[in-house]
Specification:
Distance between the termini: 34 Å
Shape: globular
Number of helices: 7
Strand content: 25-35%
Helix content: 25-40%
């Protein structure tokens, strides 16, 4: 993965343009830009998919559950359901115009939902999940919120840029200079998380970043079942080669299988496109959250 020749216009979410809270515009469907989304999730050798994902015209979210058995799947499902519901509410009531697009509160509510479910059922004690979510706001910002080691990438003008930093033990060791990235990729500790939603520790506030969206941008959100085994160069090559988001998401999952992943794999891919041009207008859920969709599919 290489740095863009022209730096992207990054902003801390609190300083992102369009951060003034405003009421929703007249005519709820008057978005200038939307996401053309797709998502694929495939269970690993454990047999039960503990990833969950959702992809729609304004939101992508991926969660990778931790806890074994039904605990990881339940945590991931609860988080995706909560973030989807909160993002829809923020879009309807104008909270989406806040600097963080309402995602900080959405992830905090998702964390609370996981903890409440674990407290109510001893079989779910200790369950936790990652969560990476991206919203395309009506004022043209891509806002990303992130906890854990699932990842968000943005491809612009053929160059893939990773937006998130893993909240993992090996990433902390790389940051401190005690481990090289190559050692981290091969380390048996690479799945140890320092922050997650649920579990025993307070995850703190989600990492937040925002960038002004441009038509033609392509987003990838994925679990570490993909990013942990498929090199960044391959991610970039597949995203650049496949015209449709659905084909790109499927091919990326197949690439993870070919690379020998031992984990569940989820990829959510979406293109930023003018309203009316998207091939899919459905909020589709996959993995442990599968079974719901809203909207209409375009031919």
């Amino acid at each position: 993965m290489t740095a863009p020749s022209t730096p992207l216009p990054w902003f801390p979410a609190a300083e992102a343009p369009g951060g003034r809270r405003v009421p929703p515009p007249d005519g709820a469907g008057q978005d200038r830009l939307v996401l053309d989304p797709a998502a694929v999730s495939l269970a690993g050798p454990r047999g039960a998919d503990q990833d969950a994902g959702s992809a729609g015209p304004a939101l992508l979210v991926v969660a990778d559950g931790v806890g074994g058995g039904r605990g990881g799947a339940t945590a991931a499902r609860l988080v995706v359901e909560e973030v989807v519901a909160r993002a829809a509410a923020a879009r309807a009531d104008g909270t989406e115009a806040a600097p963080d697009a309402g995602l900080a509160d959405a992830l905090a509510a998702a964390d609370a939902a996981v903890r409440a479910a674990a407290a109510a059922d001893p079989a779910l004690t200790g369950m936790a999940t990652t969560c990476t979510a991206a919203v395309l706001t009506r004022d043209g910002r891509l806002v990303v919120a992130h906890v854990g080691d699932s990842r968000a990438h943005l491809m612009r003008a053929g160059v893939l840029t990773r937006l998130t930093t893993d909240h993992s033990l090996v990433q902390a060791l790389v940051d401190s200079g005690d481990m090289t990235p190559e050692e981290a990729a091969a380390s048996p500790m690479r799945s140890v998380l320092l922050r997650a939603l649920g579990g025993s520790a307070d995850p703190g506030r989600a990492d937040l970043i925002a960038v002004r969206a441009e038509p033609g941008d392509r987003l990838l959100l994925c679990s570490d079942g993909l990013s942990g085994v498929v090199p960044a160069a391959t991610l970039q090559r597949v995203l650049a080669a496949e015209r449709r988001p659905a084909a790109a998401a499927s091919r990326l999952v197949m690439a993870a299988l070919a690379a020998g992943t031992r984990d569940d794999v989820t990829a959510a891919v979406a293109d930023v496109t003018p309203a009316g041009w998207a091939g899919c207008t459905v909020q589709v859920t996959v993995g442990a959250a599968a079974g719901t969709a809203t909207g209409t599919a375009a031919d």
